[in-house]
């Protein structure tokens, strides 16, 4: 055993450790900057669509018009779900499973219908990634419909990725504004460096497992409230506060009891998450247009941000600021999406990041196998069970 002096350093939470090189995204956490393949997130959120961003992440360049048309057509073609997968979704809904558990199971089940599941060539992995990416919204819409005793709405090929998703959820073609809001949410969640779920899916692909398994690992990891589940937690936090005039008292109590403000703080951003900034602006528009619950949630969120940041600043903690999960619940509510579905939408978008990363890693793979530092005793005597005290 290593002596105290030569004890290796343990990087708890792997903070500050680089595990691979990437061309997909770059986060400058000190200066509120995020880039996909070198493009600032603000420019993509303003001008692009989810399909174009997906193409960018898979091919590391923006598409020409004919390439984008073909890419969109391939995605639209792959939206259908096998009948058996719909039955699994229905069964899990009847068991009252959480939507993230249903999504994880349904993606895993889909693998059984893919004849290429064990083929790890770049072409096959791209085809499988596109299939999973295209089918995820159909799975989410199916569980949403079944959970409300409504019929499944089959996908349409003539609608964009997010337009079709909203159509399948609500059996109604969304407005231009609703489509823009959902496209923005999808673009902002598409990729984000070596976060916990990206790492989990990378570990899986590093064993030369398969793309479906890598996505299932990602979903399982994204589910947690410290990661993708924070938007749902932030929503319940706003509901618990109830109105902007209760914020001040709520924050004092929360911080005194060492409770975390959900949707604030980030391992990499030590400044304002640029995605949260974009969502906050969009939420302002949403609050004006929709009124009602989205407006109330927005007013609570704005007030909570003001009070919490003031309190954090007094403690010298200017590094704790809103992250993307803080401001998405308002937009989701306006789009008629219930809180238990928030993380599934994050997932549907992030599949592109996980699969693009997996394919990038497979160009020069190495098994990910870190160490743990043993701190227990050695050479202990084995005592027979009837002699143990
Ligand atoms: N509210 C109050 N205090 C906080 C918060 C918060 N939201 N976030 C961090 N802190 C404090 C911690 O209490 C801790 O204080 P201490 O050093 O006095 O004990 C310190 O900041 C560091 O916290 P860690 O959890 O060690 O920092 P880490 O880098 O692991 O935290 C995390 C990142 C998990 C996101 C954290 O900020 C958190 O729990 N936030 C709330 C949940 C959340 O919003 N998660 C979404 C992240 S974004 C995403 O996944 C899409």
Write the layout of secondary structure elements.
Layout: E1 25-28, E2 33-36, E3 39-40, H1 41-47, H2 50-59, H3 65-77, H4 83-94, H5 99-110, H6 122-147, H7 161-170, H8 176-189, H9 196-206, H10 211-222, H11 230-241, H12 247-256, H13 274-290, H14 292-314, H15 324-334, H16 342-362
Antiparallel strand pairs: 1-2, 2-3
Bound molecules: acetyl coenzyme *A (ACO).
Characterization of the model:
Strands 1-2-3 form a three-stranded antiparallel sheet. The protein starts with 24 loop residues before the first strand and ends in a 27-residue tail after the last helix. The model has no long low-confidence stretch (mean pLDDT 96). It contains 16 helices and three strands. A hairpin with a 4-residue loop joins strand 1 (25-28) and strand 2. Helix 2 runs parallel beside helix 16, helix 9 (196-206) crosses helix 16 (342-362) and helix 14 packs antiparallel against helix 15. It is globular and about 70 Å long. The longest helix has 26 residues, at 122-147. With 389 residues, the chain is mostly helical. 44% of the residues are buried. The chain has helices spanning 41-47, 50-59, 65-77, 83-94, 99-110, 122-147, 161-170, 176-189, 196-206, 211-222, 230-241, 247-256, 274-290, 292-314, 324-334, 342-362, and strands spanning 25-28, 33-36, 39-40. It binds acetyl coenzyme *A. Acetyl coenzyme *A is lined by residues 13, 226-228, 230, 260-267, 320, 323-325.
The residue ranges in which pLDDT falls below 50 over 5 or more consecutive positions are none
N-to-C series of helices and strands: EEEHHHHHHHHHHHHHHHH
Strand order of the largest sheet: 1-2-3
Rounded to the nearest angstrom, the distance between the terminal CA atoms is 28 Å
Bound molecules: acetyl coenzyme *A
Q: What structural category do the secondary elements indicate?
A: mainly alpha
Q: Which percent range fits the helix content?
A: 55-70%
Say how many strands there are.
Answer: 3
Number of helices: 16
Instruction: Look at the structure and give the mean pLDDT.
Output: 96
Strand content: under 5%
Shape: globular
- Biggest pleated sheet: 3 strands, antiparallel
| Global Rg | 22 Å
